[in-house]
Amino acid sequence: MKRFLPLVMLSALVSAAEWAPLPSLPDKEGFAGAFAGVAGGALIVAGGTNFPNKMPWEGGTKTWYDRVHVLIEPEGTWKVMGKLPKPNGYGVSLSTGDSLLIIGGGDAAVHFSEVWKLELKGEKVSAEPLPSLPKPCAFMAGAESGGVVYVAGGIEHPTDTAAMSTFWSINLAEAGKGWKELPPCPGPARILASMAAVDGAVYLFSGAALKPGPDGKPAREWLKDAWRYTATDGWKQLADMPHVSVAAPSPLPVRDDQLLLIGGDDGLNVNFEPKEKHPGFPRRLMAYDPKTDRWTESGVLPFSLVTTPAVEWRGKIVIPGGEARPGKRSPEVWWR
Question: Do 128 and 116 touch, CB atoms closer than 8 A?
Fold first, then answer.
């Protein structure tokens, strides 16, 4: 049986006043679906998409990018220090060791199975291939636990009307053995979920299932279920989330043994008109306590950003740009 536990206030875990801006990305539009993480001690934001000329409802065309932006110091200036192997967006990015993993993703025509390890060497970011995913995949979720990378869900092709229920892992210490297929989450197959890893467990939150809409194009079913996976016990369903939170920054940061879910789209304004007046996505923060299986309210954000990673850099949480409202990106970078 699904359980729902009431939302309560969590005093002073994260407040809007604690967030501060970092230098904005050097693009007036900013990017959604970018890859981000840390390599060589520097903050990296690579690839992603935007609408450089017109919004989508005005006939604008989405553009994919391959530029790799690097910020060496928090007070510094973003520099372009390389390119991805090809324009790419909406995959999974994870900081591991002294490198940044770029997993899957895609462009307007196809999704990718390739996996790359980015390293900062002097004034240039290099890309080294790792074993590819079992299938092309984008809009999935990912996390790393104890040197093992996990990837869940997503879609194989840009026009798919059903998400994949796949759950894959790769042990980075034995990367040559490739990816393993693990038992899938028993819940609905989904895209744009959030993941986290703590104390040997992997967590999967929210996202959206897909189905064919009246026009034959993919339509979303908004999810607020939550799950935990361990290698010994498999999947276990947790307390439902108080709110849907699709495309929230992921993987979720961990603070004081709490998993922080930063914003996300709750779907309430999905059909908002006029589109250019959309109010943006919810600015709420939620925290999940794995020990008590309880969700708590933990503050209000000074930004509205989705389809962007959450990055740990210099002991702080970084939210590097993203989608501020449907179609509209932001070059803002925040940390706390």
Answer: yes
